[in-house]
Amino acid sequence: MTFFVTAIGTDSGKSLVSAILTEALKADYWKPVQAGIPTDTETVSSLVKNSITTFHPETHLLKLPASPHAAAKFEHLHIQLDDFVLPETSNDLVIEGAGGILVPLNDEDFVIDIAVALKAPVILVANLYLGSINHTLLSIDYLQRNNIPVKGIIFNGDSNPESERIIEKHSGYKVLLRLPKLGLINKGVIEYWADELLLNWYD
Questions:
Q1: If pLDDT is split at 50, 70 and 90, which confidence band does 203 have?
Q2: Which residues are listed for ATP binding in this entry (predicted)?
Q3: Among 16, 84, 92, 105, which is disulfide-ready with 27 (CB 3.0 to 4.6 Å)?
């Protein structure tokens, strides 16, 4: 199976979740478009413990830490949706998006369109902060109106039961994991949360 990790915004915890998911499934990992250094591939590979995972190279590796469309323009490049071809693998694959759902790739296409084009169910990362209900429900509304398959949602950050409850109620999505705010992140921590994720993955 192939899964596409996206989020309600930038710095929501996609790379952390991608590392946990990659470790849990012993899956391959791919970041199709990277804007800025260090790369998320480097981050995830430093956190994954298993020896099965292959880390596939980015299709677009851009220097400027900005929206992909702006970072590409800075380098006189143009990103096209058909640039993105699934890496050859017989393993499960975790794909990490860039920024939030509607981060533009170009003047017409958004990051979420990669998931649609590659037929990869979405895992939505929702970090919890003041205003996150609105951002999360707007993201969910877009996914649902466009009939984009969603495997589930992962909450990231200090628990806020009322925020989580109302998001669950209006989304109907399965909660795959509730990640607390982590002070320490290393391979052992990732392995622990990978085991926790698997408890909710198959039921």
A1: low
A2: 11-16, 40, 96-99
A3: 92
Q: Is 63 a catalytic site residue?
A: no
| Residue 82, annotated as binding a ligand | no
Cα 125 from Cα 152, distance rounded (Å) = 9
Question: How long is the chain?
Answer: 203
Type and span of the H or E element at 30 = strand 28-30
Mean pLDDT over 60-64 rounds to: 96
- Residue 47 CB partners (closer than 8 Å, separation 6+): 16, 19, 23, 185, 186, 187, 190
Catalytic residue among 26, 31, 181, 187: 31
Whole-prediction pTM value?
Answer: 0.96
- Over 90: is that where the pLDDT of 202 sits? no
pLDDT tens digits for range 152-188: 999 999 999 999 999 999 999 999 999 999 989 999 9
CA–CA separation, 120 and 89 (whole Å): 15
The Cα–Cα gap between 25 and 195 comes to: 10
